[in-house]
Structures are given as C-alpha cells and as structure tokens.
Design goal:
The complex is a heterodimer of chains A (135) and B (160). Chain A is mainly beta and 135 residues long. Chain A has 1 helix and 10 strands; from the N terminus they run E-E-E-E-H-E-E-E-E-E-E. Chain B is elongated, with a radius of gyration of 27 Å. Classes of the chains: A mainly beta (135), B alpha+beta (160).
C-alpha cells in the first residue's frame, strides 16, 4: 500500500463560518483590507465583490476584462494585481472584481490561490492546512 | 558506523521488491531510505526554519500551452513567489469573534471593524465606504468589511 505525506506550515480554522472560508488580507500599494472568501475548487478564478476594488483604491474598469460564466448566468469581472495574504503566507496575484453591484459573494479558486499552494482539508475539524507549492 | 538490524520477514521482502525496482540490493536501498528520513525536518525544525519551505518559487514551470496558462497570461498573472509575510500572520480572530457575538444585531448590514471594535455599519457597500475611510483616518491599517448575511438566506452552492 502506498503512502503520501505533505507538510503544511500554516493551518486555518474555519469553524466560525458556514462554508469553507479563507480569511484573507488583500493589499494594493499602501492600502489593505481584511475579507472573508469562500474556497471554491470549482472556480477558475478568485472573484470578489466590486466594493473591495474601491476600498483598495482600484479603478474597477482599468482591470483586465473577463466574462465569467456560472451555473446561474454570466457576468463581467475585471482583473487587478494585488498581494493576497492568508495565515503566514502572501503572494502577488491577479484577482477579479465582479462588475454587478449586488454580486453576493467572495470566492478564492484555482488561478491565483489553489495553484500557489498545497492544500489539506480536514472538514470534520474545520481545518484547512496550507503550504506553498513546491515544484 | 555499522549497525545490525533484524528485519521482520514481511518487511525484508517488501524492501527487496522495492530495491529491485531501483536496481539496488536491500542494504543499499535501506541506507538510501534512512538517509531520506534523517534529512527530513521535524515539525519543530519546520516552524523554526519556515523560510526554507516558504521562500520558494511557487511556479509550476508553466509550458504556456494549457488553456489555464494562456488565460493566466492574458491577465498578466505571471506566477509569483509564495513567501512568508513580513507583517506577520493575517489574524482575523478578533473580527471573527465580534461577528459571532453580534451577527444577529446586524443581519443584512455591512459592518466595518477594527479588530473587535465596530467602526460603523451601513445598508449598502457604497454607504460603508465612509466607515472604511473613517477607519483609515483613525490609523487602522486593514479594516475588516463584511456583509452580515440575513438569517433566511438560501444555502450556498458554489457556482462554477
């Protein structure tokens, strides 16, 4: 029988949240905000509500336009470079801000989040183990 | 140093099988395995010397050929290093605890917090901006902003 093991330097406790939630800090220049984002392994990108672009001092429409399709419809979003921090870890990445004012959710997905990390999940204990991806 | 170890029969046969795959005899394979184990960091070493594990290229050595990589390139998202934060751990525990204690008072409201201190609350994200600005004017480095969900909201299914 084969065995595999991974080592994680950071653990995040999400027991206070209904879903698997990453408590992150977004940084742009000298400005930063704290935000909860749901972990969605089915989402290709990290998508945030448009308010966070404004609170980071970003001009939403100056970002790279992407049309995002979901099971419930589609919407435009704009990509911006930020630093994303979770636990002890941080990295520079592009995240997207949805255009619709009433966009209801913040999500961290594959590109910009999962593709930078090794992730271990013990949902029974509501613990998310994180480490940097090592090639 | 030389050591004599008595191996259980099953372990010996397992080692022999794996050694044969690598073209080694059991002694050579066992020595290699021991070296690997000896060089692995313990948990405490890992936390003391965390940079060793964190300050690495997070690059997956992209080929530029996959759909994801092409799309990634279009958004200028060259893969950057994952590093240990120079500002310490992102700690939202005070905010989390405040929300746990007060969520029923602020259902449907946007709240702006500085740790466990409520800076202000508003009906819309646009209206919450004034409290974000107020927090910054007060010297709050990273205000926490959250829309406290209504109690009767449907359960979330992810959407992609």
């Amino acid at each position: 029988m084969n065995h595999w093991s991974l080592i994680f330097p950071t653990v995040v406790d999400y027991h206070a949240h209904d879903e698997i939630t990453a408590e992150v800090i977004l940084v742009h220049g000298a400005v930063s905000v704290k935000v909860d984002a749901k972990l969605d392994t089915g989402s290709k990108f990290c998508i945030f509500q448009p308010g966070w672009a404004a609170w980071l001092g970003l001009d939403l429409y100056s970002g790279v336009l992407q049309h995002i399709r979901t099971a419930a419809g589609s919407f435009p979003a704009y990509g911006h470079e930020v630093i994303l921090k979770i636990g002890d870890l941080e990295w520079q990445t592009t995240i997207f801000f949805a255009e619709p004012e009433n966009f209801p959710i913040n999500v961290v997905g594959r590109i910009g989040f999962l593709d930078r990390l090794q992730v271990g999940l013990v949902d029974y204990e509501q613990l998310l183990y994180l480490g940097p991806y090592e090639a | 140093m030389s050591a004599i170890i008595t191996l259980p029969k099953e372990l010996e046969s397992l080692l022999a099988k794996k050694a044969a795959i690598k073209g080694l005899n059991v002694e050579q394979f066992a020595l290699e395995a021991l070296q690997r184990v000896a060089e692995m960091p313990t948990s405490s070493e890992l936390f003391v010397d965390i940079e060793r594990f964190i300050d690495i290229e997070a690059s997956a050595k992209p080929t530029g050929n996959t759909e994801e990589e092409k799309q990634d390139a279009t958004v200028g998202n060259a893969v950057s290093k994952v590093r240990r934060s120079t500002h310490g751990r992102a700690d939202l525990s005070k905010e989390r605890e405040w929300v746990r204690q007060h969520r029923d008072e602020y259902r449907g409201r946007w709240v702006v917090l500085d740790g466990d201190r409520l800076v202000g609350h508003a009906a819309t994200a646009a209206e919450a901006t004034q409290f974000v600005e107020q927090a910054r004017a007060e010297g709050v480095r990273s205000p926490y902003i959250k829309l406290i969900p209504l109690d009767d909201e449907p359960i979330w299914m992810m959407w992609s």
